[in-house]
Amino acid sequence: MFKIENHYNLKGMVAIITGAGAGIGKASALMLARAGANIVCADLNKVDADNTAIEARGEGVKAIGVKCDVTSIQDLEEVVKATIKEFGKINILVNNAGGGGGGREKFLELTPEYLQKIYNLNVFSIFNLSRLCAPHMIASEYGSIVNISSMSSIMQSHNMSVYGSSKAAVNQLTKYMAVDLGPIIRVNAIAPGAIKTHALATVLTPELEEIMLKKTPMKVLGEADDIAMAVFFLASPLSKWITGQILPVNGGGEQDLEG
Question: Which Gene3D superfamilies match (predicted)?
Answer without folding.
Answer: NAD(P)-binding Rossmann-like Domain
